[in-house]
């Protein structure tokens, strides 16, 4: 679709979590994303979370609230978080000023 529309987009595979995001997880949480070693997408691009207007995430089961919290803290105002939660479920969030 993007090519036909004359648009270019770069897709990067990497960890969504910025450095320091681990402290936002609840202490008793056993989030899979905290234990796997996937390189940071931000280092690959030399950018930070708040440099993006749109972030797409595919959270592990039970981690969508944690991703929302990370997005709330680290994303730029008015940025969008698009999460794939299952075959028939996606959610879109916009960060608004406090």
Specify the helix fraction band. 10-25%
Oligomerization status of the protein chains: single chain
Order of helices and strands: HEHEE
The helix-and-strand class reads: alpha+beta
Largest sheet: 3 strands, mixed
Shape: globular
Which percent range describes the beta-strand content?
Answer: 15-25%
> How many distinct helices?
2
Count of domains: 1
What is the arithmetic mean of pLDDT?
85
Element layout with pairings:
Elements: H1 41-45, E1 54-57, H2 64-74, E2 80-86, E3 89-94
In short:
By secondary structure, the protein is an alpha+beta fold. It has helices at 41-45, 64-74; strands spanning 54-57, 80-86, 89-94.
Polypeptide structure, described:
With 98 residues, this protein is an alpha+beta fold. It has one domain (21-94). It has two helices and three strands, in the order αβαββ. It has helices at residues 41-45, 64-74, and strands at 54-57, 80-86, 89-94. A three-stranded mixed β-sheet has the order 1-2-3, with helices on one face. The longest helix has 11 residues, at 64-74.
Notable characteristics:
17% strand, 98 residues, 2 helices, globular, alpha+beta
């Amino acid at each position: 679709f993007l090519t036909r529309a004359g648009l270019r987009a770069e897709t990067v595979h990497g960890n969504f979590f910025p450095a320091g995001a681990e402290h936002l997880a609840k202490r008793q949480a056993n989030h899979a994303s905290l234990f796997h070693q996937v390189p940071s997408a931000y280092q690959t691009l030399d950018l930070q979370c708040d440099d993006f207007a749109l972030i797409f995430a595919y959270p592990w089961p039970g981690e969508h609230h944690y991703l929302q919290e990370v997005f709330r803290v680290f994303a730029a105002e008015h940025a969008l978080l698009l999460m794939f939660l299952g075959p028939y479920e996606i959610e879109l969030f916009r960060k608004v000023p406090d």
